[in-house]
Amino acid sequence: MALKRLSIEQLLGLNKFVVDDEEAHILLDKECCRSCITRPCTAACPAGCYKAEKGEVNFDYAGCLECGTCRVVCPLSDRAIVWRYPRGGFGIQFRYG
Ligand code: SF4
Ligand code: SF4
């Protein structure tokens, strides 16, 4: 029996994410982002949490995979991003093995 091959979107859709409405685990300083020309976070985040819209970068931590990629690719990460893991009981639960 052949196994069905799932797309990235289908695999991501299997995950469960418990949103912490009281405390975001990643905070963005949008003032810093205004001076960022290349905005690599918008292309590198596998969950599409960063979006360039109307001349600025918007961020939504819901759906974050906690991979840390944005922190690595950001040229201003020491100022632009405050990155932590979510509090206990919140965040991503991977469900594809
Ligand atoms: S790469 Fe860093 S500074 Fe540039 S837009 Fe993204 S979060 Fe902001
Ligand atoms: S940690 Fe990974 S999934 Fe979460 S916002 Fe950063 S790049 Fe995206």
- Compute the number of strand runs: 6
> DSSP helix count?
5
Oligomer: single chain
Low-confidence stretches: none
**Helical proportion, percent range:** 25-40%
- Strand fraction equals 15-25%
Gist?
This protein has helices spanning 8-14, 30-34, 41-44, 69-73, 77-80, and strands at 16-18, 26-28, 50-53, 56-59, 81-83, 91-93.
Explained architecture:
- This protein is of the alpha+beta class and 97 residues long.
- The chain has a domain at 27-93: Alpha-Beta Plaits, CATH 3.30.70.20.
- The chain has helices spanning 8-14, 30-34, 41-44, 69-73, 77-80; strands spanning 16-18, 26-28, 50-53, 56-59, 81-83, 91-93.
- Strands 1-6 form a two-stranded antiparallel sheet.
- Strand 3 and strand 4 (56-59) form a beta hairpin.
- The radius of gyration is 15 Å and the shape is globular.
- The chain starts with 7 loop residues before the first helix and ends with a strand.
- Residues 26, 45-47, 49, 64-70 line the site of one iron/sulfur cluster.
Topology of helices and strands:
Blueprint: H1 8-14, E1 16-18, E2 26-28, H2 30-34, H3 41-44, E3 50-53, E4 56-59, H4 69-73, H5 77-80, E5 81-83, E6 91-93
Antiparallel strand pairs: 1-6, 2-5, 3-4
Features:
97 residues, alpha+beta, two-stranded antiparallel sheet, binds iron/sulfur cluster
